[in-house]
Recover the amino acids of this structure.
């Protein structure tokens, strides 16, 4: 029997954010390329609830939510609908609940995400139209474009950009804007 040995592994097609620019995912809008983060399990065409993957495909950008105590409404120059997040706002991620993959008001008994966070990641949230017409239980929920952590650590399945870059993208989006998320970690705004 041969002894085990460690072999270096290069991941291709499942981009995970890392401090090294060559491994970071990229977002493209027009001729501009920006750094971004995607889910800790990379990008997958077969996204499931809780798998940590960002869904692959082309999706509409539905709405922008923002923290009015941290972001001025006038800083959100966008053609998308805009709504302020309030402390009682959440998003249902319980596949058994009729509100699955929909905004909810807190308190809310089924499993959910709070949208009003202590961290800055949900200061600006763009709803990506994934699994929402109609939601299929277990296929994944709460897929957003939001503010990245400073170190661009992987998300739970969302796409994240720096606050500055996210504001730049919002300013360039037009009505009917879409995002194409590719399995190599490239995020294209259309």
């Amino acid at each position: 029997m041969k002894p085990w040995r460690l072999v270096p592994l290069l991941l291709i097609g499942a981009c995970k954010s890392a401090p090294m620019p060559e491994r970071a995912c990229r977002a493209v809008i027009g001729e501009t390329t920006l750094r971004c983060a995607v889910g800790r399990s990379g990008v997958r065409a077969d996204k499931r609830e809780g798998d940590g993957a960002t869904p692959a495909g082309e999706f509409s950008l539905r709405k922008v939510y923002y923290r009015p105590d941290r972001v001025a409404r006038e800083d959100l120059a966008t053609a998308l609908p805009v709504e302020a997040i309030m402390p009682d706002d959440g998003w249902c991620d319980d596949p058994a609940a009729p509100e699955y993959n929909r905004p909810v008001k807190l308190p809310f008994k089924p499993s959910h995400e709070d949208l009003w966070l202590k961290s800055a990641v949900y200061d600006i949230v763009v709803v990506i139209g994934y699994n929402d017409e109609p939601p299929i239980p277990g296929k994944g929920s709460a897929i957003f474009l939001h503010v990245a952590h400073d170190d661009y650590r992987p998300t739970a399945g969302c796409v994240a950009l720096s606050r500055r870059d996210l504001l730049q993208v919002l300013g360039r989006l037009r009505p009917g804007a879409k995002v194409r998320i590719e399995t190599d970690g490239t995020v294209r705004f259309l």
Notes: Residues 163-172 form the longest helix (10 residues).
